[in-house]
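Hi Prof. W.,

I finally got the Kinase prediction working! I wasn't sure whether to trim anything, so I left the full sequence exactly as given:
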Amino acid sequence: MSRLRFAVVGDNCVDRFQSPVNLALIGGNAINVAVQLALLGHEAYYFGAVGRDADGERTRDLIASNGVNVDNLRMLPGNTAFTNIDVTPSGDRIFAYEDFGVCQDYVPSDEDFRILFSMNHVHIGWICDCGTTRRRLADAGTCVSQDVSVNNDGIHLGTEGLDVAFGSAGEDRGKAATMMRGFLTKGAKLAVVTRGSEGSAASDGRQYAETGITPVSIVDTTGAGDSFIAGFLQAHIAGDTLQASLASGRECAARTCCYVGGFPQEPRPIR
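And this is what came out:
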C-alpha cells in the first residue's frame, strides 16, 4: 500500500484511571487516529493543542516518538485536557469528570489550513468550532472525514460536506442502519458505522458492505473505534473496496484490544 499523507485535527486527553488503578494514559479520538495511521506506515500530522504543562510535554513527546508529525501542535497557557475514570470492582469504567483544558477553544489557524489543504485526507475528531473546520475543508475540495459520535454538543457536529462520516451504534443493527441513512441524507458521501460485537457496516447509498469482528482475547477496548477509523481510512483512501476497507478497520481495532490504551504506551502513575 502506498504511503499517504493524513492529517488529524482535534482532541487529545490524559485518561486518569483512579484508585485502585492510579495510572494515566495518553489518548483522545484525534490523537489515537493519528498515532494509528503513523503505525500503519503513513505520514500522519496532528493539529491540536496541549497545555504548557507536564502532560502537554508528555503528549507531544509520546506521539512524536510514534511517528506523528507535531510541527502544528500548539502548546498554550493552561492545562492539557484530562478525564478522571473510576474503575468499579467488576472492571467497568465510569467517566467521573472531564476537563477539556486548552482543547476547548482550539481551532486551526489560516496557516494550518494551508497545510491541511495539501493532505491526501483530513480526519476531524472532537472539536468545538461550530463545524467551521469541516465546512472550510470541504469547500476547498479536501477529502475529509469526521467521527460524529464523539461526546460533543450537536452544534459542532454535522455530516454535510463529509467524504466519510463515522458513527457508533453499539450492537443495535437497526440503529446502525438508521444512522447510516441519516448521514447520507444529511450530506455525507459515505457512511460508516461500527456496531460493537456485531461488526461494522458502510454504505454510499448505492453500495453496501458489512463485516463481523476479529475475535481476540480482549485486554482493553479503549480506542478500538479510533483504530477502526485509521484502518478503514488507509484502505479507503488508497482506493480499496468498501468490504476491504471494513476488513482493514476491523483488523486494526482487534489489535488495539490486545493492549491497554488507544495505542501502545507505558502507563504512568498519576501524580
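The mean pLDDT is 93. Does that look reasonable to you?

Thanks,
D.
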